[in-house]
Write a structure and sequence with these properties.
The protein has 753 residues and is an alpha+beta fold. The chain is built from 11 helices and 45 strands. The strands form 8 sheets. A 9-stranded mixed beta sheet has the order 43-42-45-40-39-25-1-41-44, covered by helices on one side. Strands 2-13-16-17-18-19-20-21 form an 8-stranded parallel beta sheet. Strands 3, 4, 6, 7, 8, 9, 11 and 12 form an 8-stranded antiparallel beta sheet that branches. The longest helix has 19 residues. The two termini are 34 Å apart. It catalyses: Hydrolysis of terminal non-reducing alpha-L-arabinofuranoside residues in alpha-L-arabinosides. This is non-reducing end alpha-L-arabinofuranosidase. Belongs to the glycosyl hydrolase 51 family. It holds the Pfam family ASD1_dom.
């Protein structure tokens, strides 16, 4: 039997944020090459490098037979310095990303650059022999050659390029792309593009994320190096540990915005590289800053300038005479607010606002919705009067349910918020519904929250550096997550005004500390010896934890009243150790990380329902040194957590015990007397929502409901365990809607008559 509650839609309030729901695309998880990029050939330029990843080399992705070598003399272009030299009989084969695939009757366009001393031909086979042809090569220097192939069968295999005995041919910039309905090769993989279009995004943020400011100054993303002919673009190491061809560069980014109807939100580095770079966040040298600032201004001109401007003319030359319509520009990403950052950021922002007052500049705060970086970022934005600030929030589902009303506390007259990256830390239904509840809270506060985008967006199954992700895919299919369906339901139905909503009969879920648990030591990447161990006043034997071991159990505790002391010495390995306090998952417990994430920090993490994330920190730290003792003291006193490291109190905070809002509703209206009503039931109890509208009279509601799976179903690299279903209900002055356990519904209500 379901529990009944009332959703009372009140008066109209503020105008809805028109650009609220958008996308953030960063090249990680093979999101672009091997993903959204329709290119079927991997490393077609022979530019993979051992510095990018162990085992990479110029022929990564290729299999060579016969006389094949990589050369660098007289290259195709300085940015494309390697090429394959074939002395026949010889062949090279490329397997793409998990196979080069074709569909019977589908057409493919092969293009490459070649040069030969004498006329010859390259024999072509693609997709397991499903497409075959010959490519004539004239004598002379580098020439671009094309060949259209038609697949005679469904197939997946390799692209094979072979030269006959006696022939010598140089080959570079090999590309194989499906041909679209317009007769041109596709830029974007068609099924992934449709999946993005179905989200109906208002904006797209690009290129990062961490990718924008790079792993060191040499790795910073410079937009001018990503436009023009693809074989002339700068190819560099991806900050996520692989190669980026830049085939999806700034022109393609703007084209993606056109294809999805989204406004661009480009992100540029704030004059410093990523703080996680070796040696920290180095600033662009003073001698180069004027040129860098001009590059930023040129980006705006490239996007918006008339064809009578230098960079507007360049845009037209590249096939786009009409402006792209950039209205936002992000400066920086999760930066530490150092003196160098302040200096560089201020000069960039001042230049943009002086030259382009029509552009809304977006500043930056830290990687979390709390802590020193967050506080310093906001303080600096207020000091400067920056119009919008980029917040990030990767947290556990419980945090989202506790923070539905987070932005009610923000000053509506202050800087606006772009929630640039957020996710509830798993691909489960539980996480998707927590995000839906939080998104209703974002939608309620348009005076503050103007933009929001889930992250990361795309991930090739089996090729991830980060999970969870919104959309997984493999060579054959797209695998949307439960969170994808939530995002789609918000993007598809929007309103023009936000309405007050009262809930009657739906109580928050209380949160309390666990009553019992244990203490366990772990060291996943090191061997660590512990001595002087004292738990709640009792001396314990010395112990050792080893890499990838299960750890060592010290004993039982009351998680609300416990004290632990010890000295730890790393004997070998990397990183430090972890202290686990509390019961087993899925119950609530804490993890104190000392020397975590590249041995650069300390942090206290919390896990609920089997999903964990930092609760306090990470805070920068010197790291664990082999053979050097680390003295630890941890004290739990009710919700208060205190952690001393070598006598320094590094963490001192209270755990959030506010109740969770698991039943949440929001409403908007739009022209014609229509309402969009959203409801989340993130509980294990079926509920009947009695929706009461401010307007009397009969109405019909077109309902889209996401339900039918348990809260912990849903995994990375798999399709969602639930998909939305559509149906209608009718009523007079409102309607009743059955909400199954663990469900989310959007109802579009239209008056009858």
């Amino acid at each position: 039997m379901s529990e009944r509650f009332t959703v009372r839609v009140g008066a109209a309030g503020a105008a809805a944020a028109p650009d609220l729901w958008g996308l953030f695309i960063e090249d990680l998880n093979d999101a672009l090459d091997g993903g959204l990029n329709a290119e079927l050939v991997r490393n077609g330029d022979f530019e993979f490098d051992p510095a990018e990843r162990d085992g990479f080399h110029a022929l990564t992705g290729w299999t060579a037979t016969g006389g094949v070598e990589v050369r660098t003399e007289a290259p195709l272009h300085p940015n494309n310095g390697h090429y394959a030299h074939l002395t026949g009989p010889a062949a090279i084969e490329n397997g793409g990303w998990d196979g080069v695939r074709a569909v019977r009757g589908g057409r493919l366009r092969l293009s490459l650059f070649a040069r030969a001393d004498a006329p010859t031909a390259i024999a072509v086979q693609a997709c397991g022999g499903a497409a075959i042809g010959d490519l004539a090569v004239e004598a002379g220097g580098w020439r671009r050659l094309e060949l259209d192939l038609e697949a005679s069968a469904d197939g997946r295999g390799e692209l094979r390029l072979a030269v006959p005995a006696g022939a010598t041919v140089d080959i570079d910039a090999v590309s194989l792309r499906p041909i679209g309905a317009d007769g041109e090769p596709l830029t974007f993989r068609a099924d992934l593009l449709r999946t993005l279009q179905d989200l109906k995004p208002s904006f797209i943020r690009f290129p990062g994320g961490c990718l924008a400011h790079g792993y060191g100054l040499d790795n910073m993303y410079h937009w001018k190096r990503t436009i023009g002919p693809r074989h002339e673009r700068e190819q560099i190491r991806n900050v996520w540990g692989y190669h980026q061809s830049r085939q999806i560069g700034y022109v393609e980014y703007f084209e993606l915005c056109l294809a999805t109807g989204a406004t661009p939100v480009p992100i540029v580095a704030a004059g410093v590289c990523c703080q996680n770079s070796p040696g920290g966040p180095h600033p662009i040298p003073e001698s180069e800053m004027d040129a860098y600032i001009q590059d930023v201004l040129d980006l705006v001109e490239f996007a918006n300038g008339g064809t009578d401007t230098p960079w507007g003319a360049k845009r037209a030359e590249l096939g786009h005479p009409e402006p792209f319509g950039v209205r936002y520009l992000g400066i920086g990403n999760e930066d530490q607010i150092t003196d160098d950052f302040r200096d560089r950021y201020a000069r960039i922002e001042d230049a943009v606002q002086a030259a382009h007052p029509e552009i809304t500049v977006i500043g930056t705060s830290g990687p979390q919705p709390f802590g020193p970086d967050y506080e310093a970022g906001w303080a600096y934005a207020r000091e400067r009067g920056t119009p919008m600030v980029d917040e990030h929030g990767y947290q556990i589902p419980r945090w989202f349910h506790q923070n539905i009303d987070r932005y009610q506390a923000y000053d509506p007259d202050g800087a606006k918020v772009y929630l640039g990256e957020y996710a509830a830390r798993s691909n489960t239904v539980r996480s998707a519904l927590a995000e839906a509840a939080y998104m209703i809270g974002l939608e309620r506060r348009p005076e503050v929250v103007r933009l929001a985008s889930y992250a990361p967006l795309l991930a090739r199954a089996g090729h991830t550096q980060w999970t969870p992700d919104l959309i997984y895919f493999n060579a054959d299919e797209v695998l949307p997550s439960a969170s994808y369906h939530v995002q789609q339901m918000f993007g598809a139905e929007r309103g023009t005004r936000v309405h007050a909503v009262e809930l009657e009969g739906a109580q928050p879920v209380p949160v309390s500390l666990p009553r019992e648990g244990t203490v366990r030591l772990r060291s996943g990447r090191a061997t660590v010896a512990y001595s002087g161990v004292v738990l709640n006043g009792h001396r314990l034997p010395d112990v050792i934890t080893r890499a990838d071991g299960e750890g060592v159990l010290l004993g039982g505790i009351d998680p609300g009243a416990a004290e632990l002391e010890f000295e730890a010495v790393q004997q070998d390995g990397v990183e430090g150790f972890t202290v686990v306090l509390g019961p087993e998952a899925p119950q609530s417990f804490l993890e104190v990380h000392i020397g975590g994430w590249q041995n650069k920090s300390t942090a206290v993490a919390r896990s609920d329902d089997g999903i964990g994330e930092n609760d306090h920190g990470p805070l920068p730290w010197r790291g664990v040194t082999t053979g050097v003792p680390v003295r630890m003291r941890i004290r739990l006193d009710g919700p208060r957590v205190q952690v001393w490291v070598d006598g320094e109190l590094r963490h001192d905070y209270e755990q959030d015990l506010r109740p969770e809002q698991r039943v949440v509703a929001g409403a908007l209206s739009r022209d014609g007397g229509e309402y969009v009503v959203r409801m989340v039931n993130a509980t294990g109890t079926a509920r009947t929502a009695a929706v009461a509208l401010p307007d009397p009279g009969p109405a019909t509601a077109a309902v889209r409901l996401l339900a039918g799976a348990g809260p912990d179903e849903g995994r990375p690299h798999e399709a969602a365990p639930v998909t939305p279903v559509d149906f209608r209900v009718e009523g007079d002055g409102g309607f009743d809607l059955e909400l199954p356990p663990w469900s989310f519904a959007t109802a579009v209500v239209r008056p009858l008559g």
